[in-house]
Write a structure and sequence with these properties.
CATH class of chain A: Alpha Beta
Order of helices and strands of chain B: EHEHEHEHEHEHEHEHEEHEEEHEH
Oligomer: heterodimer
Number of strands of chain B: 14
Number of helices of chain A: 6
Strand content of chain B: 15-25%
Distance between the termini of chain A: 22 Å
Distance between the termini of chain B: 48 Å
Low-confidence stretches of chain B: none
Helix content of chain B: 25-40%
Number of domains of chain A: 1
Number of domains of chain B: 2
CATH superfamily of the largest domain in chain B: Thiamin diphosphate (ThDP)-binding fold, Pyr/PP domains
Structural class of chain A: alpha/beta
CATH architecture of chain A: 3-Layer(aba) Sandwich
Largest interface: A-B, 18 and 23 residues
Number of strands of chain A: 6
CATH class of the largest domain in chain B: Alpha Beta
Low-confidence stretches of chain A: none
CATH topology of chain A: Pyruvate-ferredoxin Oxidoreductase, domain 3
Radius of gyration of chain B: 21 Å
Amino acid sequence: MQERVIIAGFGGQGVMSMGQLLTYAGMIENKNVSWLPSYGPEMRGGTANCNVMVSDEPIGSPIVTEATVAIVMNRPSLDKFESDVLPEGNLLINSSLIDIKSERDDLNIHYIPANELADELGNSKVANMVMLGAYLELTKAVKTESIIEAFKKVFGESKANLVAINKEALEKGAEAVR
Amino acid sequence: MAKVLMKGNEAIGAAAIKAGCKYFFGYPITPQNELPEYMARELPNIGGVFLQAESEVAAINMVYGAAGAGARVMTSSSSPGIALKQEGISYIAGAELPCVIVNIVRGGPGLGGIQPAQSDYYQATRGGGNGDYRHLVYAPATIQETVDLLMEAFDVAEQYRNPVMVIGDGMIGQMMEPVEFKEPKKRPIAPKTWSTDGTKGERKPNIINSLYIDPQELEDHVIRLENKYAEMKENETRYENYNVKDADVVVVAYGTTSRVVKNAIAKCEEEGIKIGLIRPITLWPFPDKAFEEITDRTKGILTVEMSTGQMIDDVKIAINGRKPVHFYGRTGGMVPIPDAIVEEIKKISGGVK
């Protein structure tokens, strides 16, 4: 098993923390993991993205060039990363903010209205967790429990009160692709 | 101890403190800022000192002072900042003081860019400072290795009374990987009888100095340093060899680039091409010995760097004309992709037999 994931969106959509949760959860399950963020003067307005590897094999380069999955949260991210996914890979599109269809016909494409689904839970900030939930349902890369355990590590005990809504968001995303 | 997921820059800070570093002097520059941030947050908690100097030149001279007083001290910067520290590094080497210097390399020349690069190889191994001096340069490829080497670097610096450099790049600094903090193996470190930490009226004052007006005296000093460097070369050279024996092509790469090369090698193996890798872990001393494993079967050597070709000089010295040495590199902050390296390998191997 080797998951090579690109997660992209604009600053504030939680793409970095989504990646960190996945990475941390992989580590909890004793898999080899790496998390590589984009860095530079592009933080506001443009696309922020991270590369995540979760693998049974040792990890060579942490740079994802042949992605098994791309999770795109906004239109510029779709334009930028659509071509990086290997044939038969998964492309998860946040259809709340992306109003076009993918041009690829060799991928498993999932349109998920992440912002609407998050709004239904009463907190638009968990749109990233909706997408992560969909991703986990599709790939079974790590267990949901590991993500919840990672949540406490990544965000600290002070955010423990948010575990419930994030759990719901993961489930909502899973439902959307079930 | 359990593994934790840490960003490279922060892991370096944590490793330094675990290794007993109590003093940090630096000046901000991307892509290593999380490191001084970490030190600013954590050092006061253990009774240490974090100081943001007015410049890199000031910072390295503060390191010089703290090292002279016998403290475990570190500074960090990125390429153009390290360029500014070169004068101080030469003085510290001349005065035979221990310290650790971290360079999270970015593209150059000049201010260059902020993305990963390896174009400071000459600066690190030849030195931008004046005089006949050398210092160890560790070039880790993972966050775990960065932490291990950094913790050891403080001991090595004190054992030889010499600055030690740890070199990474923006990718090592910014990425997160699981790390575990392990005690480095014990080394013979003599008490710091030379340090200027107060005579207490019980001894003559120690003097920290790199000035020798009498040329004979200076030559004696430099020869003593040279003998010390020879000892470092003998005892501290490190490398990783992978399938070098009977490889069609042997690739030489360090740090981040070696990881991309490992992906390229896996692709070649799928096609039945046998590729070896020599990964220098110390850039100085360069692991000449690693090249002795290369056999007649090998058609050529490919050096891959994130520069226009700097380490290749040392590869040519090590191979001493036995095999042709080829080069592939990206620079300016561009990271090579595995497919491009595979293509270069095939040009040398002639493809599948």
